[in-house]
Amino acid sequence: MFKPSSTSVFAFITVTTLTLAASHWNGGRVPPVHRLAPVDGDSTAISPSEISPSGISFEKTCGQCHDVSAMNGASHFRTGLYTNEAVNKAYTEPWFLVDEKLGTSIPLSFSAQKGIYTPAAIGMSAWQWTKEFARNFPGGGIGSDTNAMEEVCGAKSRWLVTGPLEKNCLACHQQDDEYDSSEWARQIARENFSGAASAASGIAQVEGMNARMGATWSGAVQKVNPDDKLFKVPQRIKYDLKRFDDKNRCLFKVGKPRNERCFACHSVTQKDMPSHAIAGDVHLRAGMKCVDCHYNGIDHRVQTKSCGDCHIDPKGAGPKPAHKGIPLVHFKKISCRVCHSGVTANGEVAQVRTSRANRIGIYGRAQWATDIPNILEPIYMKTSPGGKISPYRMTWPSFFAVVKGENVEPIRPDDALLNGANAIKGALTKSSVAKTLNNLSQKDKSKEFAFIGHGKLWKVDGTNLVASAHSAAEPIYWGFTHDIRPRRQARGAAPAKCADCHTGDSKFFLGKITPTGPITDAHSEAISNYTLMGLDGCYQKLLGTTFAMRPLFKVFLWAVFGFMAVFAIAMSFVLLKLLIERIAEKDCSLRKLVRVLTRITFILSLLYLASSGIIGWISGTMTSYALILHMVAGGIFAACVPVLAMFSTNPNEECICKAGNWSIWCILAAVVLFSAVMPMMTVFGGVDQLALLWLHRISSLAFVFASIMVCVSKKVRCYCKMRKEKQGK
Hints:
It is built from 25 helices and 20 strands. By secondary structure, the protein is of the alpha+beta class.
């Protein structure tokens, strides 16, 4: 009969007491000291001096005080098995099952996203998922869920060998510099699941490799391998005894996640960019932490603050942007991230590598990082009608597949190798892909095989590899925010300003994106940027061309405004009489012709400006060709106003009413021109520009009314003059 020892009884009572007395924050401002007796997966206290001790279960150790079960289904612990799990509010970066020899990159995710497959869709077990991707998630989730672990052991599942991969709290919360995320990745690759967290945290050294053990070997039953003590050596843990006190307690330096802990899984850099050239996020450079904007409670369901929460909301803590000289339409059409986000040099499209997709940030003798998948950034898109243009990262999937009608089913890399795809060794060519497809067909003649890559579906037609369009080959994309660039480095900042986007050959609108893939001699059709944004390329080119004349146009409008301001003042002085008298001395026929043509042009331009302005006012926006025509008509209007003013006044006729009408008309014309040109200058911000817009609308309406009154008063004077002449006769 089993008789428990005093040590096991003490451990059981201690753990039970701590669990029942689990405490929460009580309002104290002093951070708690986490000096705890660590326990293993069975909640048994760790004895570090044992010859073959168990690994620390941080899920059970931290669970002595914290409700660890509340984290199930949280943002970092999804399984895809339950409806109450944290939901992605936007397209997020998928996982990629990569094989460089085959050139394959299969996008995977637990959530439903277009063009992304679930692990089950490609026959990937929960254990395989855990071993492949646990390098970039902190355990838990599918790695320890009881339903996910109910799998038949064998080639696809080795739960008996590894045991579950429990939540590794220190992966995020350890505060010192001893945590080694690369060691975590190495131990996962060796299938040392229960010892990985202890090794990564620096509490222990973990030797041996469970990956060398047979599928039926169980560390819970047999600690050592009697047949092979040299090669097939299972996981063996050696604790650093200096980390434990005489009560087998260990001090865990934990707190809110440091930025370095986040970078382990969320780093992005431009390929081949030297480290000294990386500017970094402006918020982190200012001393902020990732968790200042990405925060959560004990349930670990991450919430994220938007740019507007800090920089637009009056109660927000961040500085409020002035955006001087930027037309308000920009804030309706594009997101903040278009100008302020990205890691590439000068914000130009380039290949980037991420932690999750390309395994960057893991260091060791082996080369961990990969170039596949080829991810491009920034790609500007509008993903929904009426939505804003935002920046995205984009890549094209590549894999061998079985074609079933309109659908394709990806073939996992290891399955493809077993079925004859091992003809490919390194770089892919059309001939090597065709050879591999033929090998697959010979292995199984009942199926039709194809290769997805470069935005196309490739099939063998005789001896040739033929490409065709297919939905499965369409690009995979996800939005991004970081790195945030400061104001002076934002798109559209000095010295380029508007020319960053608005030129006749603008890369922003008129540039092209070429689908990427592993086939070196494949030809891919480029996609225009304006197509991804849902815009008219012809209009964008025309609009960009007008910006070449924008400086001259500004000078012209300012010159006209200045002239009109002087002219309006000079109306009350004798100098204006002398000027008009000299004009009146010119040839009458030529004067009449110029006056008639000017009046007609003025009326037509004024009618269009009034109608388009009112329509734009009512609809809430003015874009496309209507905007360009409005600008052209505005220039014609500005040219007609001073000419009309000079040729329509008669200094020999002294009429207070007429002089007053023309004075008001000139002043209003000057205000209209001022409120039109001033928003183009980098002086006023959003609120002031809105005030100028209303000034332009009101002064324009007043000018139209004044123009009508000038015409009516002239007709009235003519009628009165005719009556006087009749009465005199």
